[in-house]
Write a structure and sequence with these properties.
The structure is a single chain. Helix content is about 40%, strand content about 20%. It is globular, with a radius of gyration of 20 Å. By secondary structure, it is an alpha/beta fold. Strand 9 (about 205-210) and strand 10 form a beta hairpin. Helix 2 crosses helix 3, helix 2 (about 95-105) packs parallel to helix 4 (about 140-155) and helix 3 packs across helix 4. The longest helix is centred in the middle third of the chain and has 18 residues, at about 170-185. The chain has helices at about 45-55, 95-105, 110-125, 140-155, 170-185, 200-205, 235-240, 240-255, 265-275, and strands at about 5-15, 20-30, 35-40, 60-65, 70, 80, 160, 190-195, 205-210, 220-225. It has a domain at about 5-80 and about 200-280: Rossmann fold, CATH 3.40.50.
Length: about 280
């Protein structure tokens, strides 16, 4: 396996009045370069926590993350993030919002070159006629298109998507899933996405990682998605393995939903055991 992103023994614990609250424990995952992987699981299982740690927006308690043979420490322009809410600056136009990040990472290019990059990606997501509109003038779907364009325009090594269509109506969500997969297909950046939507995960992903329920969630099962690329929704739905894959995912989630929660003390003891397994140079301080 050509390992591009490696996550090894990732743990995240928060302090609480009742003792340490273990959110994610012993989380191991490797992504190949150019692979699209989705994380799915029940609410509170730590999907977004894992994504936030990989993005550098949250600190890990212990573990190691390596992207393109470089250990990840903090946030950086090598990871483009698409949030559930696009977080656009309301006093800037769509073009200016996309160009803002480009100005920071490509300061040696001329202003015209940086503007051309922003225009190019906004046109790719279907906003060529809305370059100079401000966020309040855009619909929710259009604002999310700006967020997608902004992430791709930075030309990151990896895309991280945190339920990017979770706040949209069904029709807009389907449209933007197709926009995303068409844009991603052009250069196939390695992508990790968090979603609650089984059908979305199947449509977009090469593999789906199903997380166990919390506390102390971890990787439960990994499903290899068999649908050929490029994809459109009709062909995916007609694939003979579609409902087999869907039933497997739903069955796993239903099983997790009926499992009793682990005692916090047992989870903490398990974490201490795994920390002792880390090589000396990678052990938590």
């Amino acid at each position: 396996m050509n390992k591009y992103l490696e996550i090894w023994k990732l743990n995240k614990t928060y302090p609480s009045p009742k003792g340490p609250a273990v959110i994610v424990t012993d989380f191991d995952l490797c992504l190949r370069e150019g692979e699209f992987v989705s994380l799915i699981g029940h609410s509170g299982c730590g999907k977004s926590t894992v994504l936030s740690i990989v993005a550098g927006l949250s600190d890990k308690t212990s573990g190691v993350m390596i992207l393109a043979e470089k250990e990840l420490r903090g946030a950086g322009p090598d990871r483009g993030v698409v949030f559930q809410a696009p977080c656009l600056l309301p006093w800037m136009t769509a073009l200016q919002n996309v160009q803002l990040g480009i100005d920071q990472i490509l300061p040696r290019k001329s202003r015209a070159e940086r503007e051309a990059i922003a225009k190019y990606y906004l046109e790719l997501v279907g906003l060529g006629d809305s370059l100079h509109k401000h966020p309040p003038q855009l619909s929710g779907g259009m604002r999310q298109r700006v967020g997608i364009a902004r992430a791709f325009a930075l030309d990151p090594k990896m895309l991280l998507l945190d339920e990017p269509f979770g706040m949209l109506d069904s029709l807009t969500r389907y449209e933007l899933q197709q926009v995303l997969i068409d844009l991603w297909t052009q250069d196939r950046k390695t992508a990790l996405m968090v979603t609650h939507d089984v059908d979305e995960a199947l449509f977009l992903s090469d593999r789906v990682v199903m997380m166990t329920s919390g506390p102390a969630a971890t990787v439960g099962e990994i499903l290899d998605v068999p649908f050929p690329r490029p994809r459109d929704r009709a062909r995916v739905l007609e694939h003979p393995d579609y409902y087999t894959c869907r039933d497997r995912m739903i069955g796993f989630l239903e099983e997790q939903g009926h499992k009793p929660a682990k005692p916090v003390s047992a989870v903490v003891d398990a974490n201490r055991h795994h920390e002792n397994d880390l090589p000396l140079e990678l052990s938590p301080a």
